[in-house]
Amino acid sequence: MKSQIIVETPTHQWIYFGRDPEKPDKIIDTNQYMLVTEKKALLMDPGGIELFAPMLASIVKHIPLEQLTHLFASHQDPDIISSLGLWDQTLPGAKLYSPWLWEGFIRHFGMHNISYEAIPDEGNRLRLDQVEVQFIPAHYLHASGNFHVYDPAARVLMSGDVGAALEDHDVDIFVDDFEAHIKKMRFFHQRWMPSNSAKNDWINRVRKLDIDYLCPQHGRIFKGEQVGQFLDWFEQLDVGQAISNT
């Protein structure tokens, strides 16, 4: 599995994990992100059970395992958090931050040691050493209870399924040609995002944030002016296509 530091500040790092050439062919490719401070770390959308072993092997190349103190699951999908049962055995003292709505579902993946820290619908904040991140509401994009992670110091938004694209495992992790990238995003967003009003609420919320890196859970990372390009494109896109086509 590939890992790469994508942002580094005086107080913390953002590390990307993904593009695993050894993953089973029939499962969707995913991106995982970890925020590392002096003494703690937050692993976001840790991935499916099939990726647990390569994720664990990659993480310990960057930090000692005892430094991984916090997990985040944007919603309940198996590609997000079905590895929970194995993390529960590996990190018994960790905390999982996830929407309150999905606690009864996420616990089905196996959760006896890690504590569930329910995020209220309006979102909240988490402090890791000197760094504070915000859990930004992204409800119905695509899950009915859904959050993204915003780091104002590093100007990073981990955007879950928003911005996702379906690509091969051997492509670069950053968008190089936005116009060419659209064709890899269009169907995913039109089919998986059910609500134009929810989409527009999220866009209005996110436009108020200072973002240099928009990091989705599938596909490539947007940086710099591409963040605004993505928001403009997503704003004009009509979503919930399955409903309109039936």
TrEMBL record:
InterPro entries given in the database record: Metallo-B-lactamas (IPR001279), ODP_dom (IPR045761), RibonucZ/Hydroxyglut_hydro (IPR036866)
Residue ranges constituting the Metallo-beta-lactamase domain according to the UniProt record: 29-218
Region forming the signal peptide: none
UniProt cross-references to Pfam families, sorted A to Z: ODP
Protein name listed in UniProt: Metallo-beta-lactamase family protein
